[in-house]
Amino acid sequence: MGEELKVPANLTRRTFVTGMGAITVMGGLSLAGCSPSGKKASDKADEYDIVIIGSGGAGMSAAIAAFDKGVSKIVVLEKMPSTGGNTNFSSSGMNASETKFQKEQGIDDSNALFAEETLTGGHDTGDVELVTFMCDNSAGAIDWLDGLGITLNNITMTGGMSVKRCHRPTDGSAVGKTLVAGLVEAVKDRKIEVRTNCDAKELVVEGSTVTGVKVEEKSKQSTLSAKAVIMATGGLGANQDMVTKYRPDLKGYVTTNQSGATGDGYTMAEAAGAELVQMDQIQIHPTVEQESSQLIAEGIRGGGAILVNKEGKRFIDEMKTRDKVSAAELEQPGGFAWEVFDQTVYDSNKAVAGYDKAGLVKKGDDLASLANTIEVDPAALKATVEAYNAVTTSGAADEMGRTQGCIAFADGAMYAIKVAPGIHHEMGGIKINTKNEALSADDKPIAGLYAAGEVTGGIHGNNRIGGNAVCDIIVFGKNVGEVVAATLSK
Ligand code: ADP
Q1: Which pLDDT tens digit goes with each residue over 442-470?
Q2: Ligand 1: distance of its center to the CA of 231 in Å?
Q3: Residue from 168, 301, 314, 322 carrying the catalytic annotation
Q4: pLDDT tens digits, one per residue of 111-164
Q5: Which of 61, 83, 233 to mutate to test the pocket of ligand 1 (most atoms within 8 A of CB)?
Q6: Which CATH architecture has domain 13-89+179-281+427-488?
Q7: Active site includes 322?
Q8: If DSSP codes are grouped into helix, strand and coil, which group holds residue 139?
Q9: Is there a smaller number of Cβ atoms within 10 Å at the N or the C end of the chain?
Q10: Are strands 74-77 and 337-342 parallel, antiparallel or unpaired?
Q11: Are the C-beta atoms of 296 and 329 separated by less than 8 Å?
């Protein structure tokens, strides 16, 4: 998730299918069914070294990394009309430790601390080996992106992290659009084939080896053969039936996911013998605007915003992990919160202007007028903000125990967005090892099948830290491309 694409400011996941057409055209990727040379697909043209299913951050990183290690017959399949998947909507940044940008900015960090806080954030249910691999390779992934022209040097904090390690584009915008635009550009520069509107339906398994993929394009079925298939299909948030199969309690929740997040990768991989782990670990995100399903970036809380209930009172340390903040919100009257912030927070998070244009932000010239607009008792809201400000102004302990990102509100214009939890991320998925091989129940690699990104499971355990999904998809996306290239060259 180059510079910002001209995406309509009010683009939401619900307008994604039509809205993202603009991105594909601007991204300039080859269109459905055509090879880069424009040749018509023939049987021979459908023989590949690597077929990658899914064009999100993980799939595109895999394609670029494999190409750069010498593999040329690569195709990326995308069932939607446009590339980028949910990665387009990544709202925070990419967590990484010991990076050159942290060092330049005097931020002291270590891979061990990053791993420890990731595991603690997931209540020690994450996979230690995968987490350690992710953290140890995070700085290298930041450098790799920088080499592709995707510079993430504006660093902030997300809930559950004690150090500034969430890397964002220079202008402080949400990472998703910049990342996708940069990866699309890199894919295009390498003339890697991308087939949009190409729906992968089933893996071809011969003996116990995955040898291809059955696809449907424009209602026509065909089979692509592959020496290796990389599953990078993302999550399942847009598939209510699958969500409720694993988590009946999440029936009716809105989702932040784009409509291609239908969980196909889990079904296809399982049918080929892969083990799915922790599938009930579906993360709900605490700050989702419910009418638009727009996720409100976590950097806004990290920059100083607070959450208040309809009585104008705070109810939690806003920097706690997503599971805890979501649970606390649901206990409030009406099961929602107002995310309240000042002009400084508005100006330092580029995403806010987009939310504002989309009509999601309530405003007041001062705190009292904001309180009236959102129908919260002005005296209660004033008392709440004064108590919060005292942490900065007089060094008082925060009443909610917040120690991170406690920044006093400046007088002047005030803003609020109404938020509640929404389905956000499937933390379970295909079991993998650090070579991104898809594993069976007895930990045996399924020959020919690899997986990367949200479709994989067990890395984050039962709570994923904000900023860690992008780290996961880039580190493991790059890794799987390099691993497969090395395997094919033997
Ligand atoms: P990640 O963050 O893991 O890269 P994303 O959600 O960003 O995941 O991207 C996954 C992509 O895979 C999405 O663009 C989605 O539309 C695509 N996808 C999902 N299922 C299929 C399928 N059956 N065939 C082709 N593409 C698929």
Answers
A1: 999 999 999 999 999 999 999 899 899 99
A2: 9
A3: 322
A4: 999 999 999 999 999 999 999 999 999 999 999 999 999 999 999 888 888 999
A5: 233
A6: 3-Layer(bba) Sandwich (3.50)
A7: yes
A8: helix
A9: C
A10: unpaired
A11: no
